[in-house]
Write a structure and sequence with these properties.
The chain has no helices and 11 strands. The protein is mainly β. A hairpin with a 6-residue loop joins strand 4 and strand 5.
């Protein structure tokens, strides 16, 4: 069974950090670009980052550029999302997804398959 499984979310104070993980089960993640998305209640889904299969190319939404970093460890079949300088506006369900392509050309790929997500809440 092909699955993406996210972890690492939680409650953090403004200015804090979290590292999210996206682990692939049932397939080798190293062949595919992976994107991170977020969706807050009442708001549209936002594609916030994408990384190519090799990790050589990354793209970020303006809303997170300079604060968040996407990376991958293909040996561990995992993509990471480091969230720094978190703000209350970053509160959302974060999930990873793939469109089964090798590369991405912008922050938002087409989420043909996605995980269940992990909740990030930024509040004092």
């Amino acid at each position: 069974q092909v699955q993406l499984v996210e972890s690492g979310g939680g409650l953090v104070q403004p200015g804090g950090s979290l590292r999210l993980s996206c682990a692939a089960e049932g397939f080798s993640l190293d062949r595919y670009a992976i994107g991170w998305f977020r969706q807050a209640p009442g708001k549209k889904r936002e594609g916030v980052a994408c990384i190519s299969s090799s990790g050589d190319n990354t793209f970020y939404a303006d809303s997170v550029k300079g604060r968040f970093t996407i990376s991958r460890d293909n040996a561990k079949n995992t993509v990471y999302f480091q969230l720094n300088r978190l703000e209350p506006e970053d509160t959302a369900l974060y999930y990873c997804a793939t469109d089964w392509r090798v590369s991405c050309s912008r922050a938002e790929l087409s989420p043909l398959d996605r995980g269940q997500g992990t909740q990030v809440t930024v509040s004092s």
